[in-house]
């Protein structure tokens, strides 16, 4: 279809009433077309300053109103910069960024009719702070720098007042600084951070050279996308995609019960800790080769291994994992800062008798189907399927898998500066466990396990990271073996288990056999399954449940 024709249809479509859009949508679908083929257009003049929210923004607004002090949806990044830095040029570069991207100068308010709207300011305002610690001792200034960076990350945003971008520059010495950037998720996402990095470098270089930036005005902004999305989804696309997801996920939404080291909190609030590893080179190479051999992508291989590990760890066979998708299928969205990312729920039904190869084939099929139905806003899926929500766990899934490619390569082009990541302290956890996987251009693969620090010991997550590599190794080297045959334990873990199982005393001659601890528990579970076996604070566990949990752990080991 000609580009000029699709634009004309899009222009007419935007001017129709809601009922007329539904009629046109049905005709478009009957011709085998889909909304992603039609361009995003600048919104009407009446919506330039006040526009409706996207579906993703509405969910963020709802979550923020439930907990005004939450920092779980802050997007934070920090870098240590070494070399001569022009702080004025840094500030000027961010002013140019905010001026170019409407989302960064947007706040959210309830209109007179009760609807929430995004209000776009004309002035490029953001919170800027410059902290000078150069007179402190080396040890004190490092501690103070971490404290200041943490303060910037942990200070809640007020979505009704803004600004929703916070930039802090911490001066440690004449040639050493820490740059901290914090945004609220309602105006940004992970891909937006890449846009910000690329444009910041461009603006900074131009500023130092005394030249104008080459970045021109954007043809469309995030609010234009929000209006475009609303029109198409409400015309009928939402119902079509919801039917697919309802069939995929079914009526029952099981909760993934991760075996935690510590009791769960009633309020569900945790701090995030992080354990990062680089995959062994032969495993990283194996992932690439396995993907080629199976006509799939490394994402599918890495996700399949994660779902297999979760099945072995929990003993549950219905594994649902949340997967964020950039949701920038339209070319004009690639260079825009905004909350585009959408979360998909990928389900795997696993059987111990299934081969690893067949599991990968199922994950491939589920992933391809999800990509064809990626536009349904997650919040609409929650509304349709979650039913009565519980505050002690997120709806539809409890574990995330985040796959990314590439690096912030543009940062290496900052004139006269070398940089490294500045580690931020634990931030509020959105989920009990998230696996972030990043593929690099040189073939390396990094995996970072973000976990609720109050729930899991570091040693536990360290073990999980090792087991993940074990699953990947089996998947790429011996895909014909079954899920139940997987040997996840390291030699050290096997020796430790053997030590635990070794008898401390030899039985006396002719003595009656003595039941071991696990045999006693099994006996009590048969005789008195509902009797209390364990008490921890206000939590109780029966013998029946204790036996089931023990069998689940044994199955995993």
TrEMBL record:
<feature type="domain" description="Condensation">
    <location>
        <begin position="48"/>
        <end position="497"/>
    </location>
</feature>
<dbReference type="InterPro" id="IPR023213">
    <property type="entry name" value="CAT-like_dom_sf"/>
</dbReference>
<protein>
    <submittedName>
        <fullName>AMP-binding enzyme</fullName>
    </submittedName>
</protein>
<dbReference type="InterPro" id="IPR001242">
    <property type="entry name" value="Condensation_dom"/>
</dbReference>
<dbReference type="Pfam" id="PF00668">
    <property type="entry name" value="Condensation"/>
</dbReference>
<dbReference type="InterPro" id="IPR042099">
    <property type="entry name" value="ANL_N_sf"/>
</dbReference>
<dbReference type="GO" id="GO:0003824">
    <property type="term" value="F:catalytic activity"/>
</dbReference>
